[in-house]
Amino acid sequence: MVIGPDTRTIVLDHDVMLDSIMLGLRRGSGDPTHRRIGNGWLRASRTPSGPVLIMIGATGRTVRARAWGDGAQWALDQLPRLLGADDDPSGFRPLPEHPPLVEAHRRFPYFRVGRTERVIEAILPSCIEQVVTGKEAFRAWRLLVTEYGEVPPGPGGDPDSPVYGMRVPPAPETWARVPSWKFLMAGVEQRRSRPLVRAAGRAAALERTLALTFADADRALQSQPGIGPWTSAEVRQRAHGDPDAWSIGDYHVGRAITWALTGEKLDDDACTELLEPYRGHRYRVQALLGMAGHTPPRRGPRMTLPTHTPYATRGRS
């Protein structure tokens, strides 16, 4: 028997850019934890109170949500923060010498950095995404979550339901028990699976970083073996809502930002210097430029994906 959903209508003090927030949480178009449905989104998550499936729709400042499962009340109470209610962009001012950023801010004045307040759900896929292409990482995430995640609460059993095939991310203790050969079959070698399993074993301590300042959370995350500046930034962007956590160390991001603002593709050191006037909002710069489509033109062939595992080979298109 499907228990009826809890519902909530909230009105924020800014128009809600729902797609920009949810696309930042979804790990590729096949992510079984997130799905676009009409003009809204479905999100399956594991809250401190238990699993939840939440359906979110937004029109202007008004947000309507329905949630199923033991985590329904937690997810509905947390929804304003997920949608950026705690983000304060008032100190952000694009410099006039950076016209692409000025234009991006004009086009997306209501962009807010949301926070999921689920650290473990951010750190585990970020470990999978280390040092590989997005396509390879998204495929591995999809395979592992589909196999080890659980069907979300609510109307998910009907093959005609838009929820069909979705999964709640596995619990930390489940991740900790995934055999090494299963990671390898999904294309995740030990260099990435080891920090993932370690993080799963320290889930409670990692969740406590939500009570810290952004700077202290960064230091605490990077104190974990296998978690460096890039992984910490990816986690803080999502779980903590840190508007300064730009993706330093990413192969593409620094080059894209410097190309947008200077016309040249430069390294992370140059990007860090260029972003200094925006300290406190450096991830906001990254996100705005990305939404505005400021990426350097591609020249040459794309990187070839590895084919050394059964799952990786099977998933090739």
From TrEMBL:
Residues 293-317 are annotated as: Disordered. GO terms for cellular component: cytoplasm; protein-DNA complex. GO terms for molecular function: alkylated DNA binding; DNA-3-methyladenine glycosylase activity; DNA-7-methylguanine glycosylase activity. It comes from Microlunatus parietis. Keywords: DNA damage, DNA repair. This is 3-methyladenine DNA glycosylase/8-oxoguanine DNA glycosylase. One of its GO terms (biological process) is base-excision repair, AP site formation.
